[in-house]
């Protein structure tokens, strides 16, 4: 079955794409929606422009679609992007990185229903600590590019999701009840390498923006 990947460049969307590939699905294209609203309810925003580089090392076509990021109206832009994927690449389904967000998963499902597409969410309701462990087991190189909640701060930007990171966020989970995989919007990530990539990406430079417990890092790859 030919699938489009709802692709943000972060850990969940890339891991979901890899799991779909491992299970025999064809990744026909990536669909990335670039929101002008940094507080988008639907779409990842830190370093989203770098999905072009990720698509290149994956050797998978990329559909890049802009949106103003107005709540609910941005879903029209997503539907248009998926319709384009269906018309140009003959996709039969969509894979997303939804884990716990009913808001996101339900809206993607409704769009897929209207377009006659199957919807796959390989990470849905998966234990968040297991997701982090899977990233390490599957040899993903993932860094943090955004933090948006106490006690996370600027010092977390650029941190790699490794065993040390997992131990640390587990402690934060127990003490502050944060979502260890960032499902509450606590942090955003970017994948520099994984089994889908033909070569590892290197960060040439970066610029940080924010204050206190809200920071994002824009990368140049």
Assign a percent range to the helix content.
25-40%
The count of strands amounts to 9
Structural class: alpha/beta
CATH class of the largest domain: Alpha Beta
What is the H/E order? EHEHEHEHEHEHEEE
N- to C-terminal separation?
Answer: 32 Å
Assign the CATH topology of the largest domain: Rossmann fold
**Tally of DSSP helical segments:** 6
Number of domains: 2
Strand content: 15-25%
CATH superfamily of the largest domain: HUPs
Using the CA coordinates, give the radius of gyration.
Answer: 16 Å
- What about the largest sheet? 5 strands, parallel
Which architecture of the largest domain would the CATH scheme give at its second level? Answer: 3-Layer(aba) Sandwich
What is the mean predicted local confidence, pLDDT? 92
Low-confidence stretches: none
Quick structural overview:
The protein has helices at 11-22, 51-58, 74-89, 102-115, 128-137, 163-176, and strands at residues 2-6, 26-35, 62-67, 93-95, 118-120, 141-147, 187-193, 205-211, 214-220. Helix content is 33%, strand content 25%.
